[in-house]
Amino acid sequence: MHSAIAAIARLITQHKTFVLTTHVNPDGDGLGSEVALAEWLSSRGKHVSVLNHSTTPANYLFLDPNNHIATFDAPRDSAKLASADVILILDMNQPDRLRSMEQSVLSSRAVRVCIDHHLEPAPFADHYLIDDQATSTGELTYHLLVHLNGKALDPLVAQALYCAILTDTGSFRYSYVDPDIHRIVAHLIECGADPEEVYNRVYNQWTPGRVQLLGEVLATLATAHAGALAHITVTREMLKRTGTLESDTDNFTTYPMSIRGVNAGILFVEAKDGVKVSFRSRGDIPINELAKEFGGNGHRNAAGAHLYNESLDEAKRVILAAAKKYLREPQPTNKRP
Hints:
By secondary structure, the protein is of the alpha/beta class. The protein has helices spanning about 1-15, 30-45, 75-85, 100-105, 135-150, 155-170, 180-190, 195-205, 210-220, 235-240, 255, 285-290, 310-325, and strands at about 15-20, 45-50, 70, 85-90, 110-115, 125-130, 220-225, 230-235, 265-270, 275-280, 295-300, 300-310. It is globular and about 55 Å long.
């Protein structure tokens, strides 16, 4: 990792024009990493554009007070990608997750740099900073900026990186959160990150429609395989009825995993072009292997897949059947006498 950071730092030092991007339906990790790098690069006199296929979810707009992020518009933005010196691709390692930007990124003369913490990167970039043991892309971005700048980080940079790490560690509750990440977070707070502000902005800004959506989704809760797996479902009709978007389902996977005895949880979201599936698991259950069976990938305990042109009922049937071989039987609970 150190040699990759050094090589990318040299590229950043040597070049002037940068485009930053992240995956479709961006989350706090991708957006926080983008903003942190954009703020740092622009403060050093670099020309920076941040272009994403998807719009920024409302609860993350606070990260970008200087309006670095724009939604990609091909007639307006293709030339920026074509003429950039460096394109930084953050929190994703498969070019198809760029959606409308994919061809413009792949055909650009720019040096392509991929910074990510997911497994099995596709061979589309010139430089990779990949560590699947990192908690987040924000953690990797932190190490890159410290290498470039030392320990002094601007408050906006610190705030964005704090958000990236907070959201991808489940508010620091996942098993891979170790003392080192807490030391990084302590440093970000010393540099000006406000934990209360970030948490409230990300998690305590729900719309009435999203609360109503959660109620409808929880009514679909079901278990399978002797209670070892729980799943919930979001339909297009639910989204329409509550005036919500697919992005409003962020973190809904928390609820299946909160049930006693469950060691894997699945969120099914009916999309216009098929079914989006989010997988979660505990301990040594490799839920990413289940995701791979359906064209997806991710981490051992958190993964995703998109089944194109598949009905919701059929997607649920085949995935729930395939999940059985990855599960552990729930441990019996002690009953009161």
